[in-house]
Amino acid sequence: MLASLIETAKTKVINCCLNPVWNEEFCFSISELAEVLKLEVFDKDRFKGNDKMGNAHLSLQPLVAAARLRNILGVASEGTTLRKVIPEKDNWLAVDSSSNWVNGEVVQDVWLRLCEVESGDIELKIKLIDLSCDAPSK
Q1: Are the beta carbons of 99 and 106 closer than 8 angstroms?
Q2: CA distance 68 to 70
Q3: Mean pLDDT of 9-27
Q4: Mean of pLDDT values over 32-43
Q5: C2 domain: from which residue to which, for each copy (predicted)?
């Protein structure tokens, strides 16, 4: 039986802005079975319920596959593209996205289309950091 771990985080509220930029960093632990990062965007209202502004999903499998490829190939030079993902009807990408080897980490810059809303995008930078090599040995 597999247990599912769901982690959540909320950004700070940015008032009176039609194009907010958060520049916040969150760290989540994922397992080899991790599949999808789910995002929900809300408009915070002071005197009534918050309005849902849309949602987006990002498959983490291309990022995990890029990290596996990097491990198989060994050392990659700075900026090496490990995997490219293009927008398709079954993903939420607004533009092409690629996983790259940057500063010793697998990094993917992503633009996602918001769904269930007239328009809107979310820009993310996802880093896959292998913490297993930092764990103390027993």
Answers
A1: yes
A2: 5
A3: 84
A4: 79
A5: 1-73
